[in-house]
Amino acid sequence: MQLHFRQYGEGQPMIIIHGLYGISDNWVNHARILAENYKVYIPDMRNHGQSGHSNFFNYEVMAEDITEFIELHEIENPVIMGHSMGGKIAEKFALDNPDLVNKLIVIDMSMRQYNLRVFHSKIINAMLDIDFKTVKSRKEVDDYLSKTIEDSRIRLFVMKNLYWTERKTLSWRLNLRAIIDNIDAIFEGINSSQTFANPSLFIRGEKSDYVKDSDFIEIQKHFTNSLLKTIPNAGHWVQADQPELFMDEVLSFLRKGNS
Predict the structure, then answer these.
(1) Is the pLDDT of residue 259 over 50?
(2) How many CB atoms lie within 10 A of CB 115?
(3) Reduced to 3 states, what is the DSSP secondary structure of residue 146?
(4) CB contact at 8 A, 182 and 217
(5) Which domain holds residue 31?
(6) Which residues are registered as beta bridge partners of 229?
(7) In this predicted model, which residue has the larger pLDDT, 119 or 12?
(8) Do 41 and 141 fall within a single domain?
(9) SS (H, E, C) 177-201
């Protein structure tokens, strides 16, 4: 699938892969910093943002989308960085194509299978429950979401998926039906017999339980040149909770071996 994307800067290519419910716009501030030394691509993954919709929604097809994206834009030796769902896409792609990736950065995501979390159920149900025939403004959407999503930053994150249709009504850009129908696949683990030997950085939030110490033991079996960094006072959205500390770790990792 051809993916809509944003592009910043010049230099060695870098691809940033957003997480579930995310869009390329979520990463613009970080991309502009990285663009001082890198040519940064941020695609909208399938069923997200301005990219196409499909009933097929799993790590196999999304890793293939990244392969197609690289081929289409003639990208060579990229750094791949992904958060949450995007982290698993990055893991899958790197293990399937170890010769195509220069460095790998995975943000708050292990390789294991996860159970569907109450938090995700709340987001999906809240989005589905909004009746755009009666809800006429972003403020009304925010008021409705606030009943189940207390964190205003997460509501803002979700509301970036809103857009005005040609009929001048609000709607979600997300293909919610495909996400719901395939949600179990998004929480599956990455199973592979392959290894990736190039430098890999795994970043986790101190307050998040997505990457446990036991997870990193398994990660190291597949990503044999990897290190784990923990960002203090950060949850699952590490890059939003502690943007400066997060970027310091990313830039430090990227500079190693390039001086």
Answers:
(1) no
(2) 8
(3) coil
(4) no
(5) 5-114+191-255
(6) 203
(7) 12
(8) no
(9) HHHHHCHHHHCCCCCCCCCECCCEE
Name the domain boundary from 139, 154, 181: 181
Query: At which of 181, 205, 236 does a domain end?
Result: 181
pTM (predicted TM-score)? 0.95
CATH number at residue 57: 3.40.50.1820
- For residue range 122-134, list pLDDT tens digits in order: 888 899 999 999 9
If you search the block for the tokens 């097809």, which residue do you land on?
61
User: Token pair 């017999």 is at which residue?
Assistant: 193
Pairwise CA distance, residues 209 & 203, whole Å:
12
Cβ-proximal residues to 198 (8 Å cutoff; 6+ apart), any chain: 94, 98, 101, 102, 103, 104, 225
Quick check: is 186 in a domain? no
The pLDDT value given to residue 258 = 55
- Two tokens at 123? 């987001």
Asked, for residue 210, whether it belongs to a domain, the answer is: yes
Same domain, 107 and 33: yes
* Residue the block writes with tokens 């890198």: 38
Helices (H), the chain: 28-34, 59-72, 85-96, 118-129, 138-145, 152-159, 176-181, 183-186, 213-222, 238-241, 243-255
Place of tokens 């403020």: 139
CA distance 23 to 47: 10
Paired with 196 in beta bridges are 223
pLDDT tens by residue, 27-86: 999 999 999 999 999 999 999 999 999 999 999 999 999 999 999 999 999 999 999 999
